[in-house]
Design brief:
5% helix, mainly beta, 13 strands
């Protein structure tokens, strides 16, 4: 597995080694030991899978507030997404900055998003399936959202009118979101 640190501390683009022959291919998508080598020691407690039927579906920006903040290991099983992480840790040198990576079923890349980051993605194709592992259980009372198009971040999503849930369409701006993270989340 190749791990490339992105511009936000703790965010990694992971690319599993592919082993193939005439029958097809194999790759190791998760290895506790390989992640520990780069400092990711998350203990995953839940796996999630979602499907988005339509290109241009945007999910995010989401996080869970402390003490139920989540780290996520995110992958795209079918189709393609632009996956985005925003640093929401007030004492981080990259506070309010964002990074993105294109994840597809074909490239098998994964994005590690540490606790203290907002997360969202937009589908680049129809029929997208994503799979992700989290290191804290879902807590409805700690679930938070921030507007996908908040000018405080200036994320280049590549679209003007995404398909949104009611929750995401009505999410507050960052300045009104009442989310406080430090580097030690």
């Amino acid at each position: 597995m190749t791990a490339t640190p992105l511009a936000i501390p703790g965010v990694y683009l992971l690319e599993p080694a592919l082993h193939g022959d005439a029958r097809g291919w194999f790759c190791e998508m998760y290895s506790e030991a390989a992640l520990a080598e780069i400092g990711i020691t998350a203990r995953f407690v839940q796996d999630n899978r979602s499907y988005s039927a339509q290109k241009g579906t945007l999910r995010g920006l989401h996080c869970q507030a402390t003490p139920h903040a989540q780290g996520k290991l995110f992958s795209c099983l079918r189709g393609a997404i632009l996956d985005v992480a925003v640093d929401a840790r007030r004492d981080s040198p990259t506070y309010r900055q964002w990074v993105s990576a294109e994840l597809t079923g074909e490239n098998r890349r994964q994005l590690w998003i540490p606790r203290g980051c907002l997360h969202g993605f937009v589908t680049l194709t129809d029929g997208v399936e994503v799979f992700y592992k989290v290191d804290a259980l879902y807590s409805p009372t700690h679930d938070r959202s921030v507007r996908w198009d908040d000018p405080a971040f200036g994320i280049a999503w590549g679209l003007k009118a995404p398909v949104l849930s009611a929750k995401d369409a009505n999410a507050p701006l960052w300045e009104d979101a009442e989310i406080v993270f430090g580097m030690e989340v």
